[in-house]
Amino acid sequence: MKFEDLASRVDAQFKQTRSELEALVRIPSISADAFDQSQVRRSAELVAEYARDRGFTVDVKQVKADNGTVGRPAVLAHRQGKPGKPSVLLYAHHDVQPEGDRSGWLSDPFEPEERNGRLYGRGTGDDRAGVITHMAALRALGDDLDLGVTLFIEGEEEVGSPTFRDFLNAYSDELASDVIVVADSTNWKVGTPSLTTSLRGVCSVSVTVDVLDHAVHSGSFGGPVLDAVTLMSRLIATLHNADGSVAVAGLTAYDDAAVDYPEADLRKDAGILPGVELAGTGSITSRLWTKPAIAVIGMDVTSCAASSNTIIPSCTARLSLRVAPGQDPMEAAQALIDHCVKHAPFGACATARVLEAGPSFKAAGESDTSRIARWALEKAWNAPSVDIGGGGSIPFISDLAEKFPDAEILVTGMEDPDTRAHSQNESLDLREFRNGILAEAALLARLDGKL
Prior knowledge:
It is built from 14 helices and 18 strands. By secondary structure, it is an alpha+beta fold. It has 2 domains: 3-199 and 360-447, Zn peptidases (Aminopeptidase, 3-Layer(aba) Sandwich); 201-253 and 292-358, Alpha-Beta Plaits (2-Layer Sandwich), CATH 3.30.70. The strands form 5 sheets. A 6-stranded mixed beta sheet has the order 1-2-6-3-7-17, sandwiched between helices. The longest helix has 18 residues, at 430-447. It is elongated, with a radius of gyration of 24 Å.
């Protein structure tokens, strides 16, 4: 097989590939509890149909966790390889985020629309593109592929994969593979393909500051007694140094990012307002990928509409902590809790608890498989590839690494800085999509010894 012939197959089939992607985007498979879960079943069944069309034995599975939680429908499909050939597990997820405020969309989020070479719609990038990348690469290779291939297309990633570990335990024999390709990440930018080699972990911590056992009149007692919101604000201010770097002791931080992120590009991509200074020290990519970050993502306090002239006795904030790759998330969460308790101002009572903890990921290093993956990316894009980190977290990758320690894990994706995953006007660059399909097909063919 020649690379040029494989590229011709991908291009010849791209119209059908796009049609399959658009059909999937039209299904509002939002896995959050408040939405119609029959739509998640619909999207799983469509993915299952695509897999059967490619000669796979397919089941739509749901597992029940020890705590009683029933998982969303996941597609588990298998095609037997020839003796002596490696086995590959291809992962993506078919569920999506809610559309949010529809007034912010320029087109219907569940009716795909092309504008300026990008396909707009919820899930076009995250992660229907990952699902269809697998399907299109398999169709391009057809009967020429002798690898053993398993498809695991999850249906609950957007709600934190609550039964992921249970699924791995229940179907470990079917999922065990030599190579795992996770198509749920991003590329550095349009025109520059990437392997994601590290991801930060994540912790969510709830902190409560109590000052009084009940609200009191602000005129009668204001002055000697500060309200809980003011004291919470002072506590939150201790989380960062004057330069904006994280001030919590015990958190890992290091600076080893391999690529540069110009400040002007960051400001444009993030929509930073003029005059707002960047926080932290070191390279921008290290601040995004290999150093901790803390954000206040919620606060329970009396609303302005319901306010009265009383001193608020209690305030609760939710803190999101991104953890540097390599640090245990529970260790990091405990460091944050210890800091909050220690720095409670004016002797206020501060209590905290962990709400969520997801592990980080750091690739094992250079290997024959990773070299093949970079070769495939560079051939498909006709451009050098780069290794990148992820500031966000995909905790289930660490679950895969723990369950299958001998497997090589490759983290790829079809997103780019303009994708706006989870936001309004999510989109997919169609040329990048084509290149990603070709890269995965080339990777599989090379692993199979056919290219």
